[in-house]
Design goal:
By secondary structure, this protein is of the alpha+beta class. It is built from six helices and eleven strands. It folds into two domains: about 1-35; about 45-300, 3-Layer(aba) Sandwich (Extracellular Endonuclease, Chain A). The strands form three sheets. A seven-stranded antiparallel beta sheet has the order 1-2-3-6-9-10-11, sandwiched between helices.
Length: about 300
């Protein structure tokens, strides 16, 4: 006669082991999908090529988050959209989305600045910047477009460029761009609007032909709409060398709208827009102190 107690014991052990495996898999999935763990924002490990999904395979939704502004000269460059100001010969704003899967470096940085032929009235030219003393500062960073050669190529259109003080472009603006990539690693998906502050008196004008405005300041607006906790923050930074930390320039989206005259995320439901734009919390946007120290000691020397 078979030993039924022994068989039952073996079955019980197998069931317990199976339950343990399922629990471990569930916990691992929870961690991988966001879970309750805080993201590691400053992990220097880059996304590997095997993990990357091509841009066109990621459903693009940033068109739903376009700002509203009186100028309707909108140009869609597939990887970003901009509103061009002929008066100032630069974009009033550009908007795009950052996804952690696009942080891979598939291509090297380019250097092919050229006029944007999609601007009906003509964009600023490379010649406008020669001898001016100002950098051709990117709005959509080239480093955010390294996942694709086409994306990299599009980032060097002159409509995506503004005159920036060298110590600003290679100092605090660089720090903010790198910080945004850190936040993308942590929050996985961000909507970004960035551009010059054209409501303030210009620092100068450059270019004998196009008379390009040198903005007094620049802004960058960040929106984490995917959650699990929706949040937004804005930065408005003078176009000059700065020794102050990034969080000194942080503000609510509403405050940035007052400064720029632009209605950001205008198509969001009013209830959500009001909630996201009225307040911000620096604690939800952790900063890299080591990078700040590097900027003050090294990057500001340009």
């Amino acid at each position: 006669m078979a030993d039924t107690s022994s068989s039952s014991s073996k079955v019980g052990i197998q069931v317990a082991l199976l339950a343990a495996v399922i629990a471990i898999m569930g916990y691992a999935y929870k961690l991988l999908s966001g879970g309750e763990e805080m993201p590691d924002f400053f992990d220097e490990e880059e996304t590997t090529e095997e993990e990357v999904i091509e841009f066109d395979d990621i459903e693009s939704t940033y068109q739903d988050f376009l700002p509203y502004y009186g100028n309707d000269k909108l140009i869609d460059h597939h990887y970003y959209t901009l509103s061009y100001s002929e008066k100032h010969e630069q974009a009033e704003w550009v908007t795009y989305e950052m996804d952690v899967r696009r942080l891979v470096k598939n291509v090297e940085r380019g250097d092919n600045f050229r006029q944007d032929k999609d601007i009906p009235t003509g964009s600023a030219s490379v010649d406008d910047y020669y001898g001016s003393g100002y950098d051709r500062g990117h709005l959509v960073p080239a480093a955010d477009m390294q996942f694709s050669s086409d994306a990299m190529y599009s980032s060097f259109l002159m409509s995506n460029v503004c005159p920036q003080e060298r110590s600003f472009n290679r100092g605090i603006w660089r720090e903010l761009e790198e910080q945004v990539r850190d936040w993308t690693r942590g929050y996985k998906h961000l909507y970004i609007v960035t551009g010059p502050v054209l409501t303030k008196r210009a620092k100068a004008r450059i270019g004998e032909v196009n008379d390009v405005t040198v903005p007094a300041a620049f802004y960058k607006i960040l929106l984490d709409y995917e959650g699990p906790e929706q949040k937004a923050v804005a930065f408005v930074i003078p176009n000059e060398k700065s020794g102050k930390p990034l969080d000194y320039y942080a503000m609510s989206v509403d405050e940035a709208e007052d400064i720029t005259g632009i209605d950001f995320f205008a198509d969001l439901p009013d209830r959500i827009e009001d909630k996201l734009e009225k307040t911000y919390s620096v604690g939800r946007w952790p900063f890299d102190e080591e990078r700040f120290r590097a900027r003050v000691k090294e990057w500001n020397e340009f």
